[in-house]
Amino acid sequence: MRVAILLATYNSERYLEPLIESLCNQTYRDFEIILVDDGSKDNSGTICDKYAENDARIKVIHQN
Length: 64
Prior knowledge:
By secondary structure, the protein is of the alpha/beta class.
């Protein structure tokens, strides 16, 4: 069974990397992470994109 994890982010760069790292390091591997950047004013969107480039399980949606 494939699991989808949906995370809405807004100005959360301080917590985002540890959160994504924790999710990616789980023993269960059949999942995808969908990160929704809700128009962050900090580097949250850039962080999301960086992880999506390096892990095919991560998708990013940018919203204004």
